[in-house]
């Protein structure tokens, strides 16, 4: 093990003001990485999860639902910038519908649920140092959002990127900020305890946390789920959905053969020669939505017992120090996934939820869907699907990958209610109402007639 590398990394973290739980967790994973741990999960070490409980089949009495939602906090992961879509500030500030951003819709969902259930329902964001300022500035327009005694956010930790060959903290004088990285969203547990927010939530009477990605507008407050989770007595629960051919890249749950515990396996934990198992939606039929529920009292007890180190599986992530420059030096980022906590807690469980709980936006393909008429926006900030099956969208990355380019070319979202798919090749502009029927394609050839498209102007 490179004792010098660990000492240098720890000194760098402390000089930057890192709290001790963050230092302890980083040191734990540094030791694993230097010992050669890769975090890989072999296919023959697991069995597929094939028969989880279904939320639609579970009954919870209304009194239990109200009691549980009254002790629930909503936590949104908000550290991402959406750089793959050309954004340079919090992704959740991106307008989704009618000039309203992810943040606006999340706040509306929470405020409407507070009124419906007469519950405090605190809303907290886990920000990164890159998203905090803009996010908090935007939230100032909602003075009623704060709950007494609780902040609106807590800060995700940062750790040094490490050189591949020596595991020394990398130096990049051209932009020292690029010397740092987040430890993955598994850091939410460390950040909660290190910031003091976990204790503040318990003092405020909160017992359950519903945690999800900020760009998933489907994961709004849900009293039925809260009541179910409270009734299980479980320390932790994962929301999962049936996989389709479009979900082959997402992490999935499985049963570890050695101890029969549920575990999460991600792409970075799968060997190249076993990816055909990972992507087989029939072999592993459920994917992890990254929506989870956790009992805060049991989380605190587990963290105290383990000295703030939950012991999530390591994700050894190879990158370049400058993500925008593939020729810059290769580095290692030591990460964990928050969903991997399912294997830490004895009695952790999973539940299959409707697809409506999963509405992420990772590309402009999904953004087009949310802006189209296959979703209706309600006054409560929720997007309701208006069709049984969402059409497949495939926009030419040369012209639509970046949000600014997309917005210049899609001034008016096409009607997609009658569409099965829309494939756009080439540089096309949607500047007036059109309706897509069945399977439609805009080929990269002049401007021939396009099957399945009606001009509504």
The CATH superfamily of the largest domain bears the name Spore Coat Polysaccharide Biosynthesis Protein SpsA, Chain A
Taking all residues together, what is the mean pLDDT?
92
Number of domains: 2
Based on the structure given, which CATH architecture of the largest domain is correct? Alpha-Beta Complex
Percentage of residues assigned to helices: 25-40%
Question: What profile does the largest beta sheet have?
Answer: 7 strands, mixed
Radius of gyration: 22 Å
Poorly predicted segments: 445-449
User: What's the level 1 CATH class of the largest domain?
Assistant: Alpha Beta
**Structural class designation:** alpha/beta
What is the number of beta strands?
23
Strand order of the largest sheet: 6-5-2-10-14-11-17
C-alpha termini separation:
68 Å
What this model shows, in words?
By secondary structure, this protein is α/β, with parallel strands linked by helices. It has two domains: 3-357, Spore Coat Polysaccharide Biosynthesis Protein SpsA, Chain A, CATH 3.90.550; 364-455, UDP N-Acetylglucosamine Acyltransferase, domain 1 (3 Solenoid). It is 26% helix and 24% strand. The chain has 13 helices and 23 strands. The strands form seven sheets. Strands 6-5-2-10-14-11-17 form a seven-stranded mixed sheet, sandwiched between helices. It has a four-stranded mixed sheet with strand order 20-21-22-23. A three-stranded antiparallel sheet has the order 1-12-13, with no helix packed on it. β5 (123-127), α5 (132-139) and β6 (153-155) form a beta-alpha-beta unit. The longest helix has 16 residues, at 102-117. The radius of gyration is 22 Å and the shape is globular. The N and C termini lie far apart (68 Å). The model is unreliable at 445-449 (pLDDT under 50).
């Amino acid at each position: 093990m490179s004792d010098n590398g660990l000492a240098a990394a720890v000194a760098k973290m402390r000089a930057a003001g890192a709290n001790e739980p963050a230092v302890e967790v980083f040191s734990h994973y540094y030791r694993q990485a230097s010992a050669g741990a890769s975090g890989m999960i072999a296919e023959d070490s697991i069995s597929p999860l094939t028969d989880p409980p279904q939320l639609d089949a579970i009954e919870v009495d209304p009194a239990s639902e109200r009691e549980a939602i009254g002790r629930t906090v909503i936590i949104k992961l908000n550290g991402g910038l959406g750089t793959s879509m050309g954004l340079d500030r919090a992704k959740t500030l991106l307008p989704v519908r009618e000039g309203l951003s992810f943040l606006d819709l999340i706040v509306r969902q929470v405020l409407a649920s507070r009124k419906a259930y007469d519950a405090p329902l605190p809303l907290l964001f886990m920000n990164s140092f890159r998203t905090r300022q803009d996010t908090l500035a935007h939230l100032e327009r909602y003075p009623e959002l704060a709950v007494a005694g609780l902040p609106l956010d807590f800060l995700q930790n940062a750790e040094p990127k490490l050189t591949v060959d020596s595991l020394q903290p990398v130096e990049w004088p051209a932009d020292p900020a690029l010397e740092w990285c987040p430890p993955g969203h598994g850091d939410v547990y460390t950040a909660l305890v290190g910031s003091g927010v976990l204790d503040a939530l318990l003092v405020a009477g909160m017992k359950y946390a519903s945690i999800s990605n900020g760009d998933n507008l489907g994961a709004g407050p849900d009293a039925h789920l809260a009541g179910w989770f409270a009734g299980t007595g479980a320390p932790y629960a994962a929301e999962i959905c049936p996989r389709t051919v479009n979900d082959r890249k997402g992490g999935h749950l499985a049963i570890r053969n050695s101890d029969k515990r549920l575990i999460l396996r991600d792409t970075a934990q799968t060997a190249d020669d076993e990816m055909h198992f990972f992507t087989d939606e029939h072999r592993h039929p459920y994917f992890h939505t990254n929506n989870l529920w956790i009992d805060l009292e049991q989380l605190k007890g587990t963290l105290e017992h383990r000295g703030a180190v939950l012991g999530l599986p390591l994700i050894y992530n190879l990158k370049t120090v400058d993500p925008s420059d593939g020729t810059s030096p290769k580095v290692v980022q030591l990460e964990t996934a928050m969903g991997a906590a399912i294997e830490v807690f004895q009695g952790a469980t999973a539940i299959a939820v409707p697809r409506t709980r999963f509405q992420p936006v990772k590309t402009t393909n999904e953004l087009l869907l949310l802006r189209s008429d296959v979703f209706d926006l309600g006054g409560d900030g929720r997007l309701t699907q208006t069709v049984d099956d969402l059409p497949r969208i495939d926009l030419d990355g040369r012209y639509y990958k970046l949000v600014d380019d997309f917005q210049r070319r899609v001034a008016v979202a096409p009607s997609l209610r009658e569409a099965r798919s829309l494939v756009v090749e080439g540089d096309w502009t949607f500047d007036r109402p059109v309706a897509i029927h069945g399977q439609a394609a805009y080929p990269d050839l002049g401007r021939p007639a396009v099957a399945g498209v009606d001009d509504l102007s």
